Amino acid sequence: MHKLDENALARMLSSYRDPTTTKKDVMNALRIYHGLQHRVEEYVFNDGSTKMLLNLHGTIPVKYKGNTYNIPICIWLMDTHPKNAPICYVKPTPEMRIKVSAYVDFNGKIYLPYLHDWNPKNADLLDLIQIMSVTFGEVPPVYSKGPETTYQPPSYMPPTPATSTSYNPPYPTQQFTPYPVPGPGYNSYGQPAPGAAGPGYGMPYGMPPYPPAPGSISGQTPSVGTGTITEEHIRASLISAVEDKLKRRVQEKVNQCQAEVQTLRRTQQELNEGQVKIKEIMSRLERDEKELTKSITVLKDKEKELERALESLDNVESIDVDEAVTTTAPLYKQLLNAYAEEAAIEDATYFMGEALRSGVIDLEVFLKQIRQLSRKQFMLRALMQKCRQKAGFSA
Q: Alpha-carbon distance 240 to 261, whole Å?
């Protein structure tokens, strides 16, 4: 891909969250698979919503029973690529039909373990296409439609050059080759082998037809005009056809079972992880239950203590307020009495002011009483200060 195409691709990916990584991934795939092209189209999701997405469309080479076929596919890249896996489809031509299997559904959508377990850190389009090529080489996703024909058992007699006749296969020989892909030079992964590119690389050439419809007889030797068809020949032909059909069904069943086993293993792993989490939650709940039990026991003990204290208060006779508080030394008693008397003078001063404001007493009486109370309050404060010094209290 030349510089102009890279710039165009960069513009197509301007709405993607990681355009740099996506561009690199796409270019790596297009450099290897020349039968693919890229374009931006509208993709319709299952819920009816649409979005403009980049897709790779065209053909990829697939080896099947020694022949190389061009399988048409379309790979849609999400705008979150490579965080989310691409959505892949087989796009059959009018001459083809989709062969439903564990990897392709009726709509042509492709299901692969590689897509299901897509890892953004190490998964890319090149590996995905290679895995498609290998998988489709084992289970072809399409087959030639062709007209309905009646099978004529071929002769297995050696051909006689002088009297041999042409052989018409039970399916059409046309195939889909809009994207020329070279047959020779491809390795087992559908990727061009080193040194395959050279003069004439990518030019059209004679390709074998697509695999016939499921259940049809393929791979027989062309019949000849002078051969005699015996019961033994028919029996060998039927046995060969049954063997091929059984092999395909067994392989499909094995692939399906492997996919189910992988799903079960993932489910088992999720269940094991959930079991560990549940055990941790249970352990935490048991610890919390023990702590709550201890707290409940402490609260019950305190409740009993309060009940006993209330009972003892009910049995006590009336208490003299003056005797409710006692001191341990005469000095402390003197300090306590002085403090109580000083607090009483403070209250008396407040109420004298209220009486003056209310007009209960006149100003002369107020001033006389205030002078007496202030003098006495001064003496009490001096006494408390001396008592605190004697007792060693802070000033």
A: 31
